[in-house]
Amino acid sequence: ETVDLSLDNPCAGVVLGTRTDATLTILDYEFPHTNLLENSGFETPTTTNDYDDGWSAYGATYRTGWAAHSGDYGGYFEGWTEWDYAALYQYVDVPPGTYTFSMWVRREPGFNPLTLSISIYWYDSAWNQVQATSESPDFADLIPGDGGWHHIYFTASCAHPALDHVHINIDGYWGSPTGSPSAFMFDDATFYGGSYTGVTALANGNYVV
Prior knowledge:
Shape: globular
Low-confidence stretches: 1-20, 22-29, 202-209
Radius of gyration: 20 Å
Strand order of the largest sheet: 3-6-11-8-9
Order of helices and strands: EEEEEEEEEEEEE
């Protein structure tokens, strides 16, 4: 589905040539369901670069402004620390069903990933695992090191009636950097019930004419 918006006789801004009208096409993708994550954009806390407010982490990973896809903060793996490892995770209360985790990621040219993966652990209210861990394929070689943002997702299901909450884990292990810059960045995570619903896209979002 597309929606065409016309601008007739613009009176301000930059005039491109002699045109008096322009067309902006919006690609209307389905919006995701309600995001079940807390602090999904890594925006808080604002007094430290550590993770908090829903997220926990260990290893060589922090939050900073230059890693943001949107807002003021994003997370990153320190790819310039050789042969290192990091992970971040969050617990979410859910009933049985199908769930999708997605995230915007950016791999700088010098980042040398050995493994990058998403895991979902399924627990009952007493923290007994009710189903084997769902693990994504290793996407270390699937994300191009072009310095651009890419959207990844992983969908998994658990029908066990005792399911009470999940543990969502994102982890990576990397070798010596192959150049500089060498960070792996991530932001704007989502976790919602159902299969992958895509992202909202704006045609010509960079305003290239």
